[in-house]
TrEMBL record, chains A, B:
Enzyme category, top tier: lyase
SUPFAM superfamilies listed in its UniProt record: Dehydroquinate synthase-like
Gene that specifies this protein: aroB
Pathway of action: Metabolic intermediate biosynthesis; chorismate biosynthesis; chorismate from D-erythrose 4-phosphate and phosphoenolpyruvate: step 2/7
Cofactor names: Co(2+); Zn(2+); NAD(+)
Entry EC number(s): 4.2.3.4
Function (record text): Catalyzes the conversion of 3-deoxy-D-arabino-heptulosonate 7-phosphate (DAHP) to dehydroquinate (DHQ).
Any one annotated GO CC term: cytoplasm
Binding site for Zn(2+): E181, H243, H260
Record's protein name: 3-dehydroquinate synthase
Cofactor note as given: Binds 1 divalent metal cation per subunit. Can use either Co(2+) or Zn(2+).
Species in which this protein is naturally found: Gracilibacillus ureilyticus
Length: 357, 357
């Protein structure tokens, strides 16, 4: 069992990663709670629900509510329904919400916790690599039809508990999705770490030791950044490497058509290409392309129109005065935020899409 | 023009009170913004809208959206509509939301600002005494059918600008509503201040000098408390004096049937009565009753059932483990948080209602 402590402006919390945590989850709560609401996605509930619920119920007053799996549950309707459930179950300011499942549940239940009675404790119990990554850093949100995560808060959990036994039940595309963020942590931090990640073969069963080690390293990169810039005023933007185009693709294709990480993978390829142009440097575009391709990331997608993509990129939260900002690399481990005119963006995107296809 | 600076854990902001501020409002913005969305209630828009909008439009990119006056606009539907408007008007993280109107608009637009793109700047421009009071302290929220302010954040404004010229257009019941909070500040802080407030006659036109002085003193009391306990872990609860029963009455009678302050006034009478019993002391129950009565506060109301009231009081955010907490006074200026069993609460409430009628 590995533990990292994250310091925020208001609290500090532990990120615990290890095997067999779910069936001992009561031991990892940072304190005793008078009332707990577990928010779980329906798929995760089917696989691990009883283990967690029974373990907690032996010690605490627990209610459970499930939401349909998938990004479309990050909606205003589910948000309001969960708030109503919290009231129904008499949660008060000393109560706890547990977000149990993928990144969707973490974002949704975290946003509920951040606004229920102006904020109560919540714990992230991720069941995917991606959710483990996104559970660190305190970003919670729901989607608006006009864009991803447009409604939300900066609100840290009081603990993150990641049981890597759940890797066994993780579909291949979810492993790909999560590993895109690990690749990103490599690219924005350190050549050696990046190369180490490219040695992993996602098409065969993962070596838990190696995975845990790489996830730890990735969270270490992220923690160092978010501790310095919790509210994304400056360097936290670096974590959006690959996400400006990635989010736009995800949103335009429709959530569920492509996973978050698969879209970010394409976004990273574009960001590498653009970095080469902007900084007149060589980037490991081909190495990344080959690794993504070998590991069956979808690189040939049915592209939305350029105009729609650019409009969506302008809705990105980094954007100011409708000018698109992207994170590029001066070199590996040296990210930089760059403003792009519509004209420039369009030209590079057209070229990129043409070459990728 | 008077100015007080409030210190929060994250920012400090000025509360500016004076005459003729609305027609110079651009001078009181703490910085330049690329884009401003004014949220205004329909009634206020009719009276002061053009002044403010024209003043700002000369310098800034401004959009305006109005919401129906009244507590029922603090709904999930209006909240979501305003978020959609913010997107529609291309607000980004460097943009500003101005809450222009009564307390409802401050709470609603403030909650929108606190969650739009995980939080953007907002300024409170209150047009009522009550809104001026509630704009200090960073509490923003919407209502749930099951209770007031159950969905919200702690999120300070970047400025509060209160033009007391708006007192001229304030209906008598709104003056009563606001002055209940000033009375409360007296009771929880200082005998002399309390007596000073009871010298005011709300049935004749207010003396602006006296009013501004008393409002300043009230905000001073509040500021001192919220600076020490922003997130209401302990002493901030004192500001809820009169509010536990007050909120329950407001919510059970239906918002709009009785103003917030009128309900709090009855709540304060109950809290004084209970303080006498609990602390075996004498409280200025009669002095307050006479002043409220003389100033036409509705003290004879059509009471909701005791069970419904107690249920609502349990939903109060101070409540823990379904035990009602009330703020009482050991003496004037010495508030204290007290737990009450259902049995005890019921007995005291029945007696209070019988005696008040």
């Amino acid at each position: 069992m590995h533990k990292q402590t994250i310091q925020t402006s208001t609290i500090q919390y532990d990120v615990v990663v290890g095997k067999g945590l779910l069936s001992n989850i009561d031991q990892y709560l940072p304190k005793k709670y008078n009332n707990i609401l577990i928010v779980v996605d329906e798929v995760v509930k089917g696989i691990y629900g009883d283990t967690v619920i029974d373990t907690l119920k032996s010690a605490e007053n627990v209610a459970v509510t499930s939401v349909p799996a998938g990004e479309s549950s990050k909606s205003i309707e589910q948000y309001y329904r969960l708030l109503s459930e919290a009231i129904e179950h008499h949660l008060d300011r000393k109560s706890l919400i547990i977000a149990f499942g993928g990144g969707m549940v973490g974002d949704l239940a975290g946003f509920v916790a951040s606004t229920y009675m102006r904020g109560i404790d919540f714990i992230q119990v991720p069941t995917t690599i991606l959710a483990h990554d996104s559970s660190v850093g305190g970003k919670v949100a729901i989607n608006h039809p006009k864009g991803k995560n447009l409604i939300g808060s900066f609100y840290p959990p009081v603990a993150v508990i990641y049981d890597v036994d759940t890797l066994q039940s993780l579909p291949a595309k979810e492993i790909r999705s999560g590993y895109a963020e690990v690749v990103k942590h490599g690219l924005i931090s350190d050549q050696a770490f990046f190369e180490e990640v490219l040695n992993v073969d996602l098409t065969t069963p993962l070596d838990t030791e190696v995975t845990v080690d790489q996830l730890q390293k990735g969270i270490g990169v992220k923690a160092k950044i978010v501790e310095q810039d919790e509210r994304e005023s400056n360097i936290r933007k670096f974590l959006n490497f690959g996400h400006t185009l990635g989010h736009a693709i995800e949103s335009e294709l429709g959530y569920g058509k492509i996973t978050h990480g698969e879209a970010v993978a394409i976004g990273m390829l574009f960001a590498l290409k653009l970095s080469e142009e902007k900084f007149n440097t060589r980037m490991p575009y081909k190495a990344l392309y080959d690794w993504l391709s070998k590991n069956q990331y979808p690189l040939s997608i049915s592209w939305p129109g350029i105009n729609q993509l650019i409009d969506k990129m302008k809705l990105d939260k980094k954007s100011e005065n409708s000018i698109v900002q992207m994170v590029l690399l001066e070199e590996i481990g040296k990210p930089s935020v760059v403003n792009l005119s519509d004209h420039e963006l369009r030209a590079h995107l057209e070229k990129f899409i043409r070459e990728l296809d």
